[in-house]
Model the fold of this input.
Amino acid sequence: MFKKLLFGLFISLFFVTKVAAQSVDYYLPYPGILPDHPLYWLKMVRDRVGLLTTTNETAKVEKLLLYADKRLGAAWALIEGNKVPLGASTLTKGEKYLEQAWNKGKNLPLQPKLRKAIKKHLEVLTGLKEKSGDYGDLVEGMIAKLETINDQAQPEISQAKFLISFGDSAI
Done:
């Protein structure tokens, strides 16, 4: 009996570790109050003012990324809670923040963090696609857009590695 229990535990740990290994090592922040809360508009005003008053480009990209991650978490919670239309709207806004962060930050030292964020967003969007019902096509379009951005980042990293290994005079 003990051997069967131990064997079952070993097999379940093997499968759990395999599933965890496929996940992107990037954690989403707690989204706070959700868009269905009556005071959510105050949060949006605060976020907008925070973006407008930030002058440092690196800090602005970090804020955009934070807002994108929070919106993704909020959309995830809304879709899981069967509020799919509101979740899809929140998801769209979050992905716009992520796209802005990529466009502003692709030439900054934050690029590895942005790439991880894009991969995490792709992972979550893929999981939400099945649960989003009528909005599945919208989520599929977001996935395609993020995959395009992710593909754009690959050559830039390869070129940077080439320049590091051979120096600037190699070209």
User: Anything to note?
Assistant: The chain is about 75% helix and 0% strand. Residues 9-21 have pLDDT under 50 and may be disordered. The CA atoms of residues 129 and 140 lie 7 Å apart.
